[in-house]
Amino acid sequence: MLNFLPAPVLGLLASALLLLNILLWVPLLVLVSLFKLLLPFKSVRLAIDPLLLQIAQAWISGNSGWMRLTQAMRWDVTGLDDLSRQQWYLVLCNHQSWVDILVLQHVLNRRIPLLKFFLKKELIWVPIMGLAWWALEFPFMRRRSEAYLLQHPQERGKDAATTRAACEKYALIPTSVMNFVEGTRCTAAKQLRQQSPYQHLLKPKAGGITLALDAMGEKFGAVLNITIAYPDGTPNFWQFLQGRVPRVVVHMRTLAVPQAQCSPGQNPEQALRETCQVWLNQLWREKDAELGQLLTKENRL
Fold first, then answer.
1. Residues in the chain with pLDDT < 70?
2. Strands 247-255 and 220-229
3. 277 to 129, 223, 260: CA distances (angstroms)
């Protein structure tokens, strides 16, 4: 453990190790994915996809290695029992910081299939990482506002088509489709602007999971509901790299996949969206209460 080092030095060391790990695995990931691009056949995909996943898992293991070396963070993780690498999961989680992604990958690596995140379209231009996300076929979403879509109706439905195309590919081998249903990281300013009814969360949006369930609902064996809490305050990424995150709490529950109840004459997709939104609202009320209990309990320790 190197956490005895001054925080700025530790941050620079962790950053260097993070970058080295990226430079080690991402070029290999992109190289292998090019074969799939040049030979777009199902048999080739079935042969190459498992190799890509092994490379990604090795990359995540490398991240876990430098985290263990540089961080003294105490982990409180529950709900890992009965998870399977052979099952499709729809994974939902609250979102507070970029640190959430490393936390999720560290906890779930090789316990369930690789997490595939919904990403903003602009992130494809992030140096090196954009290529990695492209190679792993993460869906890139534009997330146009309703006002924009009213002015440009030809853009409506493009995100839906992107999501369906990605999910159809995911149906070939076990996959975990990860969705931060709040759509962005939760901050006090965003809560105020959104007039969120929750103390610790933003309003959940059902659009992404509706599309995923519509495209491959019969494949999902379960929903994995994850709650992340930082009892000593939500960190930014630089604080994390400096080892200034003493504790993280990760609680998981496996839930049944929501099933739409379609009324006579009702559009099935609309019925599924309404079902998912009602289900999410209830789930978020429970998650908000859980976060309140976790933060209160942990802060007493």
1. 142-160, 162-163, 262-266, 297-301
2. antiparallel
3. 32, 15, 11
**Dist CA 121 CA 234 (whole Å):** 26
Query: Quick one: pLDDT at residue 265?
Result: 66
Cβ atoms < 10 Å from Cβ of 58: 16
CB 241 within 8 A of CB 14: yes
CATH fold label, 74-300? Glycerol-3-phosphate (1)-acyltransferase (3.40.1130)
Write out the DSSP string of 118-131: -EEGGGGGSTTHHH
Give the tokens for residue 93: 């989680």
Could you please report the per-residue DSSP string of 47-109?
HHHHHHHHHHHHHHHHHHHHHHHH--PEEEEE--TT--TTSEEEEEE----THHHHHHHHHHT
Q: Please give the Cα distance from 65 to 228 (Å, whole number).
A: 21
CA distance 36 to 206: 32
- Residues 39, 41, 47: CA angle, nearest 5 degrees: 85
- For 301, the token pair is 């320790």
Q: What is the longest distance spanned by two Cα atoms in the chain?
A: 66
Domain boundary assignment for the chain: 74-300
- What is the distance between the terminal CA atoms of the chain, rounded to a whole angstrom? 24
Per 3-state DSSP, the chain is made up of helix, strand and coil in percentages (nearest 5) of: 55, 15, 35
Under 8 Å between Cβ of 257 and 91:
no
Give the pair of three-digit tokens for residue 62. 């490398």
Query: What are 249's strand-pairing partners?
Result: 76, 229
